[in-house]
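Much of our argument rests on the idea that a fold can be written as discrete symbols. Part of our work consisted of pairing the sequence of a single chain with a tokenised description of its backbone. We regard such an encoding as a compact summary of how the chain folds. The amino acid sequence and the backbone structure tokens for this protein are reproduced below.
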Amino acid sequence: MKKTILIGFFGLLFLAACDEAPKQSEIKTTEKEVKKEATIDNGIYKVVSKKSVLDWEAKQISGGHTGIFPISKGLLELQNQKITKGTFEFNIKDLEVTDMEKEDEDYVEIYNHLIDPDFFEAEKFPKATFQITNFSDGMLTGNLKMRGIENEISFLVQIKKENEHLILTSNAFYIDRTQWKIGPKSEKLFSLTELMDSTIKDKVKIQFKVYLV
């Protein structure tokens, strides 16, 4: 009788242990979950110009346009997973308008309008540059120079390693075009009766994604 009770008791312990033991599939899942992201090595990284772009969106009172500036060249220096230095350069004439097809009749007109003296004045100022001055808690600060005018801007960024590339991505942020004398006079200078559908808003939305190696 005692032997029967002992056998039954140990049998219950064995079954309980089996129920509590993690299954092999669960162990594999856990291992995947704790897998760390690829570490970023210290060093100087070069912009991959064919993949790196700055997206922009300029609104009017009614409507507006979107487009890109390809990043023509640049360097980014990192130490201990943090950005320490960096510069990016844009060729103004490489800009594209993305809310219409290049074959559209209006495309050439809008493109020429953007590079003429009223806007970017590309003949006189063919390049725009961004020079990084500080990076702290994900906030990137630097000097954006367009039309020979330099102003400080700040915005949040994320940086990660993906295969052979280092990728720097910004959150969407806004700049005031009038600080660089881009486009017609500020919307603030118009009275309500003067505002037209074609009046360009001062704030331009910016976001970029930079690939580096």
User: Anything to note?
Assistant: The chain has two domains: 2-33, 43-212. Confidence is low (pLDDT under 50) at residues 2-18, 29-35. Residues 2-33 form one domain. The first strand starts at residue 43 and ends at 46.
